[in-house]
Amino acid sequence: MASRLLTRSTAARLLSHLCRRKPDPIHCLLTHGAASASLLGPTCDLSAADSALLRYPARWFSSSPAAATEAPMTADGLTVDSIASKGWTILPEAESDWRSHTAAVAQSIKLIKKRLKWGWILERTKQLAVVLERPDLWDDPVFAGRVSREHGELMGKIKPVNQFEQELIEHIEMLRLAREENDNELESESMSALADMRRSAKEKELNALLSGDNDSCSCFIEVQAGAGGTESMDWAAMIMNMYRSWAQRRGYTVTVVEEMPGEIAGIKRATIKVDGEYAFGYAKAEVGVHRLVRISPFDSGKRRHTSFAAVAVIPILGDASSRYQIKDSDLRIERFRSGGPGGQHANTTESAIRIVHVPTGITATCQNERSQHMNKASAMAVLQSRLDQLEIARQAQMNAEHTQSLNEISWGNQIRSYVLHPYRMVKDLRTNYEVSDPDSVLEGDLDDFILNYLSSSLDEANVSA
């Protein structure tokens, strides 16, 4: 019974609506027996006016903990899983058909749970809840904090899905009640709510693609020119401009951290910082080697050339407990004069900074800021993220959960081809998704490529699991 009860807010809205249409809304509801009275419960959280309306011997709301774990169910036994398995035809959104809207939302919820690895999340949450009950848990504050944080993150994924599932069942019940009452206004409101849920479900499907540990982080995007001299350097610059345009389209903040220009054109290497929610979650789809085929603008013979550029994406971790601990004694800091056009003091003082982490040999350079202190801070941020990524890869290898695309950036690892001659096409070799307008892609229209890859890679991971 508990899982079939309306939430307090939904029942209050229903009563408020009936108050406008019926002289005795409570009598109206109670006359429908199980079809309506079973949808309500205790009134302790309602206002005084709403509480007065509900002083009748019926259970109107549920406060039972079981309601959070049981599958929400309508009075006639419909659940999200049973709706998804009925095979109801899903019509366009413009069609006012409750079965179509309901089936579309149910299918979305089913897909969201699959992408979130729902069974594993529920089991892991139970395990963590047991650990949190241990009386000696906080004897080790670091471990306790990690467990508490993981439990909170998992509950943050579970609760929105449960609430969305409960909301669908409630709208179905309200629609049924409206039809029993011949209440056209309430029926129209319920139908509109189902249509809104259907649109919202698509956004939640997308959010479920970005459920990885570091997906919500900002990131650094690094581009490295491949073999091929000026051709590849020019291609690396085009790739970097593409990512800057893509990030700006999404409303992210882009900062150039490091840029080493080529001798004639383009760049040998560059790093940008992309600040914004889920920047890493999206950008990680771009890790690998990008291949360009075109008539070279640097070849007087107008011959066709193939160029390569490698892309790496590194999350900027906000959780200090999971970051690589850098010792000052492990650092070698080198100072030199900045290159490029510069400005006042830029090329006359040793303001550029190169930091070398001696144990690993990893380096970070910054020369774009005006002062040595600012360059050092930026270089340290890049070094920290590179070492964090190294630590993530090490832990992933220990857990046998690492992905080849993040750890092996080699020239044989082409993920996408951009062909400008003899025909025009951009094709992702991992998903076979392609478009015939390379100009729009190079101007930053990457979302379709990214979403196709994230969706296919997550589905493949679920199948293999």
Automatic annotation (TrEMBL):
Q: What keywords does the record list, in alphabetical order? A: Protein biosynthesis
- GO BP terms: translation
Record carries keyword Ribonucleoprotein: no
Q: Where is the Peptide chain release factor domain?
A: 176-286
Work out whether the entry's keyword set contains Protein biosynthesis: yes
A cellular component term (GO) from this record?
A: cytoplasm
Highest taxon, organism lineage:
Eukaryota
Q: Which SMART domains match?
A: PCRF
The family annotation for this protein states:
Belongs to the prokaryotic/mitochondrial release factor family.
Which HAMAP family is this protein grouped with?
Answer: Rel_fac_2
Please identify the protein, giving its name as recorded: Peptide chain release factor domain-containing protein
Q: Which organism is it from?
A: Urochloa decumbens
